[in-house]
Each structure stands twice: as structure tokens, then as C-alpha cells.
Amino acid sequence: MKEENWDLIIKPKIKWYQVDLQSIWKYKDLLFLLVRRDFVALYKQTVLGPLWFFIQPLITSITFTFIFGRIAKISTDGNPPMLFYMAGITFWTYFSDCLTKTSNTFIANAGVFGKVYFPRLIMPLSVLVSNLIKLGLQLTIFFVFWIYYLNQTDNNIHPNWSYMWILPLLVFILAGLGLGFGILISSLTTKYRDLNFLVTFGVQLLMYGSSVVIPVSSMSDKIKSIMLLNPLTSIIEAFRFIFLGTGFFNGLGIFYSFIFMIVLVFCSVIIFNKVEKSFMDTV
Amino acid sequence: MADVVIKVENLGKQYRLGKVGTGTISHDLNRWWATVRGKEDPYLKVGDVNDRSQKGLSDFVWALKDINFEVKQGEVLGIIGKNGAGKSTLLKILSRVTSPTIGDVKAKGRIASLLEVGTGFHPDLSGRENVFLNGAILGMTKQEISSKFDEIIDFSGVERYIDTPVKRYSSGMYVRLAFAVAAHLEPEILIVDEVLAVGDAEFQKKCLGKMKDVSGQGRTVLFVSHNMAAVKGLCTHGIVLENGRHTFSGTNEEAINFYSQKSESLSQTELSERTDRKGNGKMKIYDIQFINESNLLVDELSSGEYYKIKFYFEKYGEVDASQLTFVLQLLNENDEIVTTIATDEQGTKFDKIPEKGCFEIEIPRLIFRGGKYKICYLLSEKKAFNTPHNVIDSLNDAKIMNVMRGDYWHSGLLNRPKGFIQESSIRLING
């Protein structure tokens, strides 16, 4: 009988570069059904339903405006504080949601993963997509406010229209960073649960280190250069630069974030891929 | 000759016992250091046979070792073995939920596994939405599901509730819908783990029928079950696993015979020397005897006669008599429970447990027809209602009860074999 005609070979170890992108494509229907499930199930039995997508960033922005703007009087680069915080929060939320929701991929889905095989990366990818839709909705609410403020005289907003095209790139980098950190953490937590505790307040701390609240312009040069090591800082500053005309924009910074993201995603996908083979034994 | 579609070679799976967590970093570092120096993983050399009743020497056990078999296209392979023999681990490896420690599996065609029905069902979603979601998780495309949607709903028989969230379903409806999705998968290789143990008898029959159809279409099925009747009815071939080793493979009949002989030979060893007991050992049953009407010890029983079954025990530790529960189960040759006698459901209370004694069960008139029945027992201290039983001593296949065909009705004719004798007479009525 001819030997080498097998469609599938299950072996103890796989080569580090064997990431099965082909089968992820085969399961694309599952990805979209999972996205659908997230949306349908999230606001079932709520009165306001999808309105919560808008309420969350609004309330946070109002709170920030009140606490950081009015009480702490932190500079907003001369922008209307509401708009300034909203810009930061909208973008930040996408990153932090991607991170926190993918960081428990293995543990939260242990039940399903323990029974059926499908490419495990489908799960975090579906999180990325459903949060992308959420980001789209939240950006519209930002644009509503933005247009309102634009039409005010004396608004002190100077959009850099010519840079508008890099917006998708910014979102792409954010998504990659969220995914990379998320699945890295989720791979490590199958064995070492300690990281779980870190995620919640780690993300919180990172927010203050990403110029969501405090703009880079109000910092001393020394702190500024440390802040810019954080790949998120350039992204959020760039977003403000495009729409509000303030903020720190530097092509090199964006490039740094992009490379950071690529390396991170590459490494964490490889680790994730290795862990998914046997995590059921340790989780 | 049909093609080999699954080939398993030297398959093994090792698990670490005890607390996972402490020491994992040091083990990881040890492993890493060994690979750096180009040596063999130090933890692969150790490892005991997976025998739960004996305390092992090592922290590592082989849940499966040296498994070799082939499955040809169109075969329905039954995987038989006692609890803990490694059946589920094997299925998990085959369905790629976990990876083997050594060896490999080669397969041709799409594998779908049904280790559970309703995987990924979301309680808040409607039946319709869950059919799509579950189907996609099992590996179907949206198009495939749409084209079979009506069939699935028809099979499940829950059409009326299809747009209701599944959390409002009765558990039966839930399982029906879930199985319906799974039944309409069309993989070349289907792996099934006892999912048939759910649902009512009618539905089980439907499922078995469906599985037969599947294998009739030239697809290969791997089936794990404790239900020998199902294995008998469904499978063409069988393999027997024991303590993680592959002890037999052959046709269905042969495998079942091998398995039942095995458990019979086990029950012929002296009860006091059995090592597969479970429990804390505060009390131990060391002998089981059948006594007839004239107080004589017998080996074989016959229908319609008076018997006493005595379970002799010795006490080794303090036992709370008021909490003591004794449960006796009789299983037929297909490992199906025929009857259960339990002190807790009868409300029997014990006052004091002597150092030595016996539990006596009186059978005024044996209603079993001819056949072999296995005796399983469980002695436990029940601390409080609804809490897990605190097992003192328990043994499966403790003894075989050989029942000969008797003359229950004193009619001069021997009773027919199999099943119970029902105390009812047949009358003829005119009209």
C-alpha cells in the first residue's frame, strides 16, 4: 500500500513555524458566527440594548472631563476636554478590550476547546472583529461630538485632513498590539495563573502611561522619551493630531509602534500555537 | 481490500499526577536544559502503568502507552475498556483536543469528533442561531448548515421552539437539537464518545439508527461506550484497552468476549486479594456468599428459589454507624444495571458496626431468569444529604452470580433465559 497519502498527521511536537493559516481560512464562517454571537448575546435581556455601546465611552469621558479636567486641571493641549478625552478613550478602549478579552482565551473556552478541535486562533480573532465593530460605533459618536465642536466658532480644533488616510493603519496597529499581548498572556496563564491578576490593573496602569489622560506635550523631555517607548503613546497622540490638530506626531514613532506590533504578534502567535497543542492537560 | 484510513503507531500519553503548579517551573527548566544538551526528556523515562488502585512509584503515569491499530474505511470500531482504561484520552488525541506525548496518528479525510453534544451552545441564543454556531464549531460551513437546516430541525423535533433561546428548553429538547446537528455532520471519520447515553429510549434508537446510516455510507466511525449492547449492535470491530495498554483487537464479537472474560476472571480471584478496591478502607468486604434455603453454601442459583446473599466484612477504623450506606448493584453481561438495592433509599439505619460481621440480603424468591450477573457494591458514609459520598469500600465485578434456569412456576418446565420473571398470569377472556 502506498504510504504517504495522509491528510492529517497528529504528532507530539510540531515545528515552531507550523502555523496553520489555511485551516483558519477554512473556519472563517465560524469566526463570523462567533462575532454574531458576541453581539446578539451581549445585550440580550437589556432594555437599552446596543445603546450601551455609546453610553460607556460617554460616561467615561464625562467623568474624566470632570476629574482630570476640572479638578486636577491637567492640560488638554487647548482642546475642549470632552473631545480630548473621548478621542483617547475611544482608541484606548479598543486596545484594552482586545487585550483583556483575548487574554483569557484558553481558560474561558476550556469547555469548548476540550471537546472539539478547530483552529484556536479563531477565538481571539473573533474578539478582534467584534471589537472592531464596536470601535466603529464608538467612533461615530466621537465624530458627532467632533462635528459639533468644529461648527462652534472659536473651537481651537485644527484637523490635519491630509493625514486622514493613516487612520486604518492606526487601528490595525492597535488591534495587533491588543491581540499580541492578549494571546501571549493567555498562553502563559494556562500554566501560571498569576498573570491573570496582573492583567486588570496592568491595563489600568498602562492607560496612564499611554497619554490617554495626560498629553505628551505637558511632560518633561525625559519622561516624554520614556512615554514614547510605549508603542501605544504614538498611536493615541497621532489620532489626536489628525482630528484635533494637537498631539505629538512623528513618523518614526508610528513606524516603531508598527515594528513592535509585528514582532509581538509573530512571537505570540508562535507561542500560542505551541500552547494550544497541550494546554488541556495543564489548564 | 479497503483502504486504511486511520493508523495509530506507538501512541502514548503521559500525565503528571498531583498538584500541577508547584514545581512546574523547575520541571520546565529541567526539560529545557536536557533538550539544550541534546538529551532525552528526563521525565519521559519514568512513568507507571496507569493503575489507579495502586500507589505508584512515580509522579508521572502513562494514561496510554504503546497503542497500535489500524482502521479501514467503512469500519465501525468499538473501543472497550473499564473506566480509566484510557478510552477518553485516546479519543481526545484522535480528535486533536490534546496532543500525544509520543507516537503518531495518521488519518485520511475529515475527522469530526463528538465528545459531547451541544458544544458551544450559548444559552441566550435561539435554537436556530445555535444550530449554525454549533455546526460551525464542528467544522461545517455556513452553506452546508443552511442546506441541511430543515433536515436538522426535522430530526430534532423541536421545530416549534426553534426561535426560543435554548436556555428555556427542557434538557431533553436541548440534547435532541444538539445531537441533530451532530448527526448531520458528514465527515469521512466520525469519533463518538457515549453521547448516546442521553435522551429517552426512543431518541437513543433514532441516534443509533442514524449512526448505522453513517457507517452504511462507507464512512468510518470510532465509538466508545460502556454500553455493550450498543457496541454489539453497532460496531464491526473492537479493541480493548486496559490500564492504558492495548490488550486486544479483533472483530466486534471477539473483543466483547475478551472483555467479559477479563472481568469474569477478575471476579474469580479471591475477594480479599483484590487490589482494585476504592475507598478509605475503614471497612473491607472480604467474602460474598450465596446461601440457600437449607443454609448451605451454593455457587449457582436458580430462578424461583429462596436465597441469602452475605457480604462478610471486617472493620479497621471508626465508622459512624448511623451514616453507613450499603448499595448493591447487579449488572448483566452487557454491563447494564439490572437492579439496585440500597439501604439509604429503603431508610435502613444501622446501630453499631461490629469488628466483624456480615450484611445479609434476603431474596424470598429469585426472579432473575438464567444468565450471569455481576455484583458491584459500595459501602459509604454519607455525611449529609446531597454531599458526595464518603466511600469506605467499593468494588466492581466483585463476584459473578450464576443463575440457572429454574422452575419458578412449579410447572415442570424450565423458565426461558434472559430478563426477569413477571408475577402475572395470562387469562383467556371471551368476546
Structural write-up:
The complex is a heterodimer of chains A (283) and B (431). Chain A is mainly alpha-helical. Chain A is 65% helix and 1% strand. In chain A, helix 3 (52-71) packs across helix 4 (81-102), helix 4 runs parallel beside helix 8 (167-189) and helix 4 (81-102) packs antiparallel against helix 9 (194-208). The two termini of chain A are 41 Å apart. The model of chain A has no long low-confidence stretch (mean pLDDT 86). By secondary structure, chain B is an alpha/beta fold. Chain B is built from 10 helices and 19 strands. Chain B has helices at residues 24-36, 42-45, 87-94, 127-137, 142-156, 171-183, 201-216, 228-234, 252-268, 343-346; strands at 4-16, 48-49, 60-72, 76-80, 102-107, 111-114, 189-193, 220-224, 237-242, 245-251, 283-292, 297-298, 300-302, 307-315, 324-331, 337-342, 356-363, 371-381, 390-404. Chain B has a 6-stranded mixed β-sheet, sandwiched between helices. In chain B, helix 4 (127-137) packs across helix 5 and helix 5 crosses helix 6 (171-183). The longest helix of chain B has 17 residues, at 252-268. The chains are: A mainly alpha (283), B alpha/beta (431). Chain A binds chain B through residues 1, 5-13, 27, 29-30, 32-34, 36-37, 40-41, 44-45, 111-118, 191-192, 277-278, 280-282, and chain B through 3-4, 7, 15, 20, 24-25, 92-111, 113, 115-116, 119-120, 122, 124-125, 129, 132-133, 136-139, 141-142, 165.
